[in-house]
Amino acid sequence: PQRPEEAKAFVNAFLKRSMPKKKDEAIQDILTRKAVVLEHYSKKKTKQKRKKLKGFTAKQRREMHLFEIEPKQQRYAIFLQLHELWKQYIRDLCHGLKPDAQPHMIQGKLLKADLHGAIVTVTKSKCPSYVGITGIILQEFKHVFKIITEEDKLKVVPKLNNIFSLEIDGFVSYIYGSKFQLRASERSAKKFKLKGTIDL
Q: Which residues span the domain enclosing 139?
């Protein structure tokens, strides 16, 4: 066992090493109060800033023609397989589209569903030339649908002032384009309210 003098010398030497910034008087003051707080000097870690990956701007995407479909690819037969995949997607989304399913439940699912691959028909329009256009939706933008018809013609149909119908497994749903002017990604999070009457 250490003698008191040795113990005191050890404590003094230990405190001097542990607290190099404090003077001897301050260390002795700490010992008289019998409260010792050892200071720990840790190196400050410099946080590395994460670089955010920047995507293309809308102008760059237009200049690169990312959303344009080449004329040789504008064929109805090519996208029939996309339509089959869309039908399977809707059946899974609506749990099989059973005959006893409630129409408003299916309608609510379709309002938020992805429509790329759906076959739609313009049933009513303020512009008579749009009425009767039928085809597969290839692209959906905020204000327009791009539709490929059976005649292999790519049609750009505005949503405003048009009513569209789509049919799957005997269930016919109507889309009022004027109330549907949203991007597909925005539409999935929007809460649609039931309204009594809707005009073009």
A: 73-189
